[in-house]
Amino acid sequence: METYPGSISQYIYICNTYTTLNNLEKAEEYAKKNIALNGNDPDKLQVASIYLCLANIHLEKKEFQKASYALDKIAIFLPDSNEVVLDLGYYEKRGRVSLALGKYTDALSFYNLSYKYARRAGHNSNLTYALNMMATLSLKLGDLPAAKKYATENLELARKGTAKTSTINALLTLSHYYEAVGNNAKALALTHEAIKMKDSLISETNIRQINTLATIYETDKKQQDILRLENEKGIQTVAVKQKSVLNRIFVATIIGLLFFGWLAYRNVKNEKKITAQQRKIQAQRISELEKDKQLLTIDAILKGQEEERSRIAKDLHDGLGGMLSGVKLSFINMKEKIIFTQENLNNFERSVGLLDNTIGELRKVAHNLMPEVLVKFGLEEALKDFCGSIQATTGISIVYQQFGDERKLNNQADVNIYRIIQELVHNAVKHADASQIIVQLTKNHLKTGITVEDDGKGFDVKILDTKKGAGFNNIRYRVLYFKGTLDIMSEPGNGTSVSIELIV
User: Is the predicted pLDDT of residue 418 greater than 70, yes or no?
Assistant: First the structure.
């Protein structure tokens, strides 16, 4: 089959981009297109890169047998003394497959090889990941000295880097080791340090988002000042030209005939009309460009927020949540094997209770950041689940209703509609003192409507013009991005009704 110039690297780039965005179906589509076009390419390393990309997609989809098949296609080319990064990626993914299939000895061997190539390539993040997995697998295999060695080296290396996530994972892994050797005090101290660092990481992420918004605002403000000065300069230039033309007409009128004077006057009048029309057209174009620029900025902000939320939710749920659950289970097992005094037993039960509350709060945070039901089952099921959970936790009656066409929206529209309703319901719960909330979603072939009503205490809508809360501004950004309309009806004592119409 013919290979198109540049098609291999282009399809690999597109495939990796869709994988990063968690659009695994699109990523797999381009990976298979690449295999169809370039699977017999004479450049073996290019072909290996294609199958490495496909293996990564199957790992993200937890299709471990398919991932193993894709890695078998790469094995015949490796190891390659020049392509260290390719070697690193292959052995790291082999380790993930073996771990998922319960082959811990094989997994440990593969992660040892990925550690070797990560050190040769100088990739600090891959080094810490390999050490973390080697320590975890040594614990599973009962090799406690090796587990301590890898976990300690991992923590030292992670503390030298800038990625706090690596340090958090290293702390939790070392905590598991001390738990395994019976040093529960040390294990609990390391766990608390990891939780504290995770809270700091979330705070830093929020500050970065606020600073980004401030920078965008200042940039737009400066751009508007520049455009205003340029318009004033243009107006002055036109005025000077007009005066010059009028002076010439005046001289020509004195010297020449009245007919030529009248003709000159008519020409001046026509020029003014044309200039006015050109100004109007130019103003319209500037306005359209500013709107396009604003929409692009909003799109970048919203995508950045959702990607960061998805990443943090995944780290919390899959990483920290699982590890905390393991710590809790170990504490419970330990209780059955140790004889406590009554005072120590009460302290132990209190500590387990605190750990249980921490796990519960962690899962709530992860669910609010990126609900799994939205990704797996779609917008309608996610909204039903959300309304049900709010009703269960607050005791407020929440009625969810859906009307209109049963048509599917794109993923971006689903996420933004979910976030709008989530923010509106949270506002009603926190501020309205309501006993009932009604949520309605309406679809037709062109538009999507959102209505959120409550029977709470209401408020004066004029305060929204001066209020600078991030939540309501996020709603405005999302409505503006979909070229929609936002209508709020409320007054003190008569509840609140918010109606939104989006072109999507």
Answer: yes
